[in-house]
Specification:
The relative contact order is 0.14. It is globular, with a radius of gyration of 23 Å. 41% of the residues lie in helices and 15% in strands. Helix 7 runs parallel beside helix 8. The chain has 431 residues and is an alpha/beta fold. Bound molecules: pyridoxal-5'-phosphate. Pyridoxal-5'-phosphate binds next to helix 5.
Length: 431
């Protein structure tokens, strides 16, 4: 029935003309609308309905932002984007491989190459989402070509773009999730895999838990099982530490040499613009250009984005970048001590701010969860909102049921003292 309905528009002769001569879609689409409406209703019933809210929140009180270093409002970044748009036009006009690749793409990639500690290549894509799709398009097409088996062993709480990338229709390519942060579980997955190649997939800084992956453990585990490689999503860490790339842990060069197969650095978070920078061996970059759908079939990033990203990367890799990162870290450590000072006042609440073990770098996002009643976080979000602060309430399917939480991100523009003052007030009135 569904197949018949969905096939109908592809047969123009079967679509009746309306009396006015224009096509009437009401009748054939009625059952389709019914299916859509029932799916939406189920979402509503589950309390999971999302709303596309128009943001009127000032950056000073918006704790959903990933613009950790406030680069999106940097005057030089805006000017560089505007100049590029004035010079090259508002849009890029075609996909990178259909038209001519804009030389600003190459300029970004050359700039990034300077920070990669090995002779690898960078590839800039429209978004982090497309970069993650792109790299797995290339891996699946090349690694399984001769019938080799590949097991992708992925953090079960990994970002949706990573799942979109790894879920490929290829019989010899299997996806096996492992529990977030459970390295023993990952070990069992690796031990049980008989595939010729294994690819472990993690986020350097988990976007919803605020936890850092452990480079040393990951490196050791991958090395234990030959033919095992690691792909790291650095959407939330790229630009956040000195050195820019492979940043989630200083020890990454020691621990992951020969194991790492690629990294995705996000340009829509700390870099403040948009886009995803894939960092891979040259050969894998070549494969991306042959097989990756987002590079071949999607309009490439606009000149504004390219100009702004290039400028932001220049600033972040210079002394101003160092200062901005230092300032952010000092805001985060102030947050931590203010939260500690709340003592028993916050006893029903867990407030977690991730810290990278070897580098002591703090995550620019905190997770707040109620110890007994996960749903209570939604009431807290409402109280924050009544006081003019936007603190997103994160619920399934973004995070597992029972782990509903507030995700509080911090940027250079935030005043953590007033945030903690308000938190203390909200938990008192929500009791
Ligand atoms: C971990 C992670 N990877 C990838 C992405 C996708 O990046 P983009 O927003 O640039 O598409 C996000 C976005 O939030 C993310 O959090």
């Amino acid at each position: 029935m569904v197949a018949r309905i969905l096939n109908q528009p592809s047969d123009p002769a079967a679509v009746p003309d309306s009396p006015s001569g224009s096509l009437s879609f009401d009748a054939p689409l009625g059952p389709v609308f019914g299916l859509i409406e029932r799916a939406l209703e189920e979402r509503r019933q589950q309390g999971l309905y999302r709303a596309d809210r128009v943001s009127r929140v000032s950056p000073l009180t918006d704790h959903s932002t990933n613009d950790y270093l406030a680069m999106s409002s940097h005057p030089e970044v805006i000017a560089a984007g505007s100049n590029a748009a004035a010079r090259w036009g508002a849009g890029s006009r075609s996909s990178r491989l259909l038209g001519l690749s804009h030389d600003l793409n190459q300029a970004i990639e050359e700039t990034a190459r300077g920070w990669i500690p090995v002779d690898w290549a960078a590839t800039f894509l429209q978004s982090g989402f497309s970069a993650n799709l792109a790299v797995f398009d290339a891996l699946v097409k090349t690694l399984t070509r001769e019938g080799s088996t590949v097991d992708v062993i992925i953090d079960h709480e990994a970002h949706s773009s990573l799942f979109a990338g790894v879920r490929q229709r290829e019989r010899s390519w299997k996806v096996l999730p492992f529990r977030h942060g459970d390295w023993a579980h990952l070990d069992r997955r690796l031990a049980g895999s008989t595939a010729a190649v294994r690819i472990v997939v993690v986020e350097a800084l988990h976007s919803m838990n605020g936890t850092f992956a452990d480079a040393e453990r990951l490196g050791a585990l991958c090395r234990q099982y030959s033919g095992t490689f690691l792909f790291v999503d650095e959407a939330h860490t790229f630009g956040l530490v000195d050195g820019m790339f492979w940043s989630f842990c200083d020890g990454i060069r020691q621990h992951l040499d020969g194991v790492l197969i690629g990294v995705m650095g996000g340009c829509g978070k700390a870099v403040g613009v948009s886009g995803g920078l894939l960092v891979t061996p040259h050969l894998l970059r070549e494969a991306c250009f042959q097989f990756s759908r987002p590079l071949i079939y999607s309009t490439s990033a606009s000149p504004f984005v390219l100009g702004a990203v290039l400028k932001s990367l220049h600033i972040l890799s210079g002394p101003e970048g160092v200062d901005r990162r230092r300032e952010l870290q000092s805001i985060l450590s102030e947050f931590e001590s203010l939260i500690q000072n709340l003592g028993r006042q916050k006893e029903s609440w867990d407030v977690h701010l991730g810290q990278c073990r070897p580098t002591s770098i703090r995550a620019p996002l905190a997770v707040i969860r109620h110890r007994d009643d996960p749903g209570h976080a939604q009431r807290l979000a409402a109280l924050f909102s009544e006081s003019g602060r936007f603190v997103p309430y994160i619920r399934p399917p973004t995070v597992p049921r029972g782990t509903e939480r507030l995700r509080v991100s911090f940027s250079l523009q935030h005043n953590v003292e007033s945030f903690v003052g308000l938190f203390s007030h909200c938990i008192a009135v929500s009791r």
